[in-house]
Design goal:
about 110 residues, about 20% helix, alpha+beta, HIT family, subunit A
């Protein structure tokens, strides 16, 4: 499989890790869109949110727990944003489920 996030999870590609356990990894985004921009991924390859089912939905809950832990460690007490892009029209560029944790500045809506 030629998935960059799988390669990062398997330590084949270096990343600046922020969190890791046996099933999940979080690392700093190479093109940060905020002072804090961390990507949170399951190590198991899940293509997108479209592949979340009743059997694997615990993945998403754990990713939110990890995001909250990282946000606290990073001092994002005023708030933060968690983003998931799903599919081409949703802006997903890496076909591996991931959350963007963004913080450290005032977030605008709908963009920014």
């Amino acid at each position: 499989m030629d998935c960059i996030f799988c390669k990062i999870a398997n330590n084949e590609v270096l990343s600046e890790k922020v969190y890791e356990d046996e099933k999940f990894l979080a690392f700093n985004d190479l093109d940060p869109q905020a002072p804090v921009h961390v990507l949170i991924i399951p190590k198991e390859h899940v293509k997108s949110a479209d592949e979340i089912t009743d059997k694997n939905s615990d993945i998403v809950g754990k990713m939110f727990i990890i995001a909250a832990k990282i946000a606290k460690e990073k001092g994002l007490d005023n708030g933060y944003r968690i983003v998931n892009n799903c599919g081409e029209d949703g802006g997903q560029t890496v076909k591996h489920l991931h959350f963007h944790l963004l913080g450290g500045r005032k977030m605008n809506w709908p963009a920014g």
